[in-house]
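S.,

Sequence below, as promised.
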Amino acid sequence: MIVAYDGTPFHGFAINPKVSTVAGSLGGSLQQIFQQPIPLVSAGRTDAGVHAKAQVVSCDVPAHCDLLTLRKQLNSLCGPEIIVKEIAWASADFHARFSAIWRHYQYFVYNADFPDPFKVSSAWHVIAPLNLHAMQLACDPIIGTHDFSAFCRRPKPDNEPDLEGSELQDATGEIVREKSLRRCVMQASWKLMDDSVFRFDIRANAFCHQMVRSLVGTFVEIGARKRPSSDMMALIRSGDRAEASQLAPPQGLFLTEVGYPSEITDRGV
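The prediction came back faster than expected:
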């Protein structure tokens, strides 16, 4: 399934029995339809308040299921906050997370003297004037394969529960602990959409927890001339999270696309 959702009312994607989550709502609707639990796998675990235009979700449903009817049922039960945009059968070895070769996120910054009530839930309002050239210059150092420790929430030790965004599921559904914070960034760029909205695009093979929001927080400080563009390279080399800027808020972040190998997409995924 390709799923879009407004993350505002949800405490992230992953199931949490104590709060409302995207997977909890979607999985609960599937259980209501099929009268049995339907475990879900997503291409990426978005944080509380983060949105998705094209999250990819895989699951096992009965082979006799009519997918068009299922999409209508899910949209009726979960909409308008969660909408299944596309649905298709996949090969038995398809895995929304492990079959993916890249993820693409966008972050929106509303740069104006006063807030816009229609952008409150979809952009970070920044009052200080931002310099596009300075932020774009700071993009170059993050492209390529680097250790992004300075921009990621550090995974907890093995004896501590809840690794949040640093957890991965293996093929059997077991949770495995991810140690390396090396990521390959394929694209990173800033664009001025109009007189007041900046858009940051970033594509990478994977993202560690809070990586994009941490990068954006640093970019905005650079754009506001609170630190030089050269700080980005220094931060990557240092690996020190304490030296990076504060996190950008979640509402400006969107998961917009997930890439899969052509041999998989050719089979209908």
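The chain has two domains: 2-89, 102-262.

Coffee later?
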